[in-house]
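ARCHIVE ENTRY
Sequence with per-residue tokens
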Amino acid sequence: MNEEARQLQKRERMLNAPVERLISHLAVPTIISMLVTTFYNMADTFFVGKLDNTSATGAVGVVFSLMAIIQAFGFFFGHGSGNYVSRKLGESRTDEAEKMVASGFVYAIIAGTVIMTAGLVLLEPLAILLGATPTILPFAMDYMRVILLGAPVMCGSIVLNNQLRFQGNAIYSMVGLAGGAVLNIALDPLLIFVLDMGVMGAALATVISQAVSFLLLWIGARRGDSLKIHLRNIVFSGKLMLEILRGGTPSLGRQGLASVATMCLNHMMGNFGDAAIAAMAIVSRIVMFVSSAMIGFGQGFQPVCGFNYGAGRYDRVRRAFFFCLKVSAVFLFSFGLLGIFLAPHVVALFQRNDPEVLRIGALALRCQLATIALMSFVILANMMLQTVGKVGGATLLATARQGLCFIPSVLILPHFLGIWGVLLAQPVADVLSFAIALPIGGSFLADLRRRSLAE
């Protein structure tokens, strides 16, 4: 079967197979991909926590903001190009999709190189800006220096992963990410303890594993019915960049503001000592791990949404959305409830030697898990709007939770409530962002219903 026939067969499946079965099939590898992606950061936090050095653990939390910036640009080009590709494949315009695949990838590599260069030049002031205290600063700079060297590869990996996923080839992205995650978990103890490299060893393990993921994803992008990256398809075009802006701006806003939010959180927690920063670093990884499974399930919805919206099958877009919403809400509520009861034990897996880290971490985890189920509607509505090119609504929802709602909360509440103000900032942001998402997402779903009835 030639490539054109395979593309037609895939389009037929996307537009006619039952959406529940289709999403479940696509979601398994994307859930695994998201879970193993969180292992990159969780593994570093876990093994660095075994150094019995609260400042070193805090450094991992501080540098997380930098990694969020790198990921923001990777997702900007990955989602921007991927959304466009899925719609064009739904319209049977493969030639335009091929140009976007090649161009989006090259744009991301260039962006990663710029981040690397600027970060290395401004290393110390950047670490301070990210929230490093004087005691955390030396560890943060060691960690950042290595992470920055891997910025181009990280951006490229994220783009390849998302382009494969939006084409409906999530199995290749899963293999690429899983291979890197397994290597990261193996390298962390070797470099941190055996070779006595400390936090720099954790950073080196992350960059090496990202490089391996990149190679595996590149191989996946050359196999099967995946659109191939060819030099002849690279176009420096204002039109393509505009499409990337339309599809990627919500991701850039979400990840970028998440980085700013983490900086604000680190600065506010710094008022209560290194133990508070270390505790929040641990909690953010735990919550990310739980939410990543839900996000992975939603990512199984995106190619189905893109293909069917591009083909005018609005009834299938609605049906797919509500199926994902029901599954995601039940999952997050169940795991949130379980985590509230087991919070001290979960935090102790990462740091059991500092009682203050355990105390603050358990309180923070319980606060965040109390409202985590609200994420299901906010994130799925954002994914739907972003995939269909509704950049205004998608950007608002993408930036609401970790930016527009969280940043004011974490900066204002501590002045009235002390450390409790920091702990309650995320639950407050979750409620506010849900209140914003409900009318925006509901209005678009109602419009889809009207358009499907009019067909």
User: Anything to note?
Assistant: The chain has 17 helices and no strands. The mean pLDDT is 86. The CA atoms of residues 69 and 142 lie 18 Å apart. Residues 54-90 form the longest helix (37 residues).
